[in-house]
Specification:
GTP Cyclohydrolase I, domain 2; GTP Cyclohydrolase I, Chain A, domain 1; about 25% strand; disordered N terminus; elongated; 2 domains; binds zinc ion; binds guanosine-5'-triphosphate; two-stranded antiparallel ribbon; GTP-CH-I_C/QueF; 5-stranded mixed β-sheet; alpha+beta; 7 strands
Length: about 200
């Protein structure tokens, strides 16, 4: 499968029904040893499926639609545009438990600029899919590069993986950092400017 496939990977005729998804949750409730018939759990399968629709809503969105809405560069501005500290929640594709972190996304405009909220929306779309941090980092950079053809794109993602905190190795507080640089950001001087701006509070 293409690592940066922009849209849903399940054809709609293969998508299970809501009732089937709720039945799967019911099975898991039984499997962990609880009683799905007790009062507090009666509506839980429906709630979980609804929550999944929200948390995994990124499969139904194509970042190219968001990034297609660009506008002409304002007053000859051609320096770095950085949106930093974009908080996100994602889920790791190995264990389906949360990845919690921040993304920092910069680009160097060529002719057209992006609405700043569109950068945040793109992070949100990719975060609301099952992910590895590396894939998500690359997807954000590639989608902006493809849509805008800027002089360069820089993406840094910092996140804590709950699959390492809540289970398995059970170590809280470690942060994983991933980066992706394209175009002018291959130059270490631009990379340093990007990281300096991120660290500036
Ligand atoms: N590279 C990368 N690894 C990840 C990410 N999220 C989770 N992982 C790792 O994916 C690996 C899956 O390893 P497996 O040995 O197949 O699964 P596991 O037995 O559950 O592994 P443990 O977590 O070590 O218990 C683990 O080392 C996770 O820490 C990610 O975003 N990127
Ligand atoms: Zn995991």
């Amino acid at each position: 499968m293409d690592a940066i496939a922009p849209t849903s990977t399940h054809p709609s005729d293969e998508k299970p029904s809501r009732a089937e998804a709720e039945a799967a949750v019911l099975t898991l409730l039984k499997w962990i040893g609880d009683d799905p018939a007790r009062e507090g759990l009666i509506d839980t399968p429906a709630r979980v499926v609804k929550a999944y629709e929200e948390m995994f809503g990124g499969y139904d969105s194509d970042p190219a639609d968001i990034l297609g809405r660009t506008f002409e560069e304002v007053a000859g501005y051609d320096d770095i545009v950085l949106v930093k500290d974009i908080a996100f929640h994602s889920h790791c594709e190995h264990h389906m438990v949360p990845i919690i972190g921040k993304a920092h996304v910069a680009y160097l405009p060529r002719e057209r600029v992006l609405g700043l909220s569109k950068i945040v929306r793109v992070v949100d779309i990719f975060a609301r899919r099952l992910q590895t941090q590396e894939t998500m980092t690359a997807q954000i950079a590639t989608s902006i590069d493809d849509a805008l053809a800027p002089r360069g794109v820089a993406v840094m993602v910092e996140a804590e993986h709950m699959c390492m905190a809540m289970r398995g190795i059970r170590k809280h507080g470690s942060t994983t950092i991933t980066t992706r640089f394209t175009g002018a950001f291959d130059d270490p001087a631009w990379q340093n400017r990007f990281t300096d701006l991120i660290r500036t509070r």
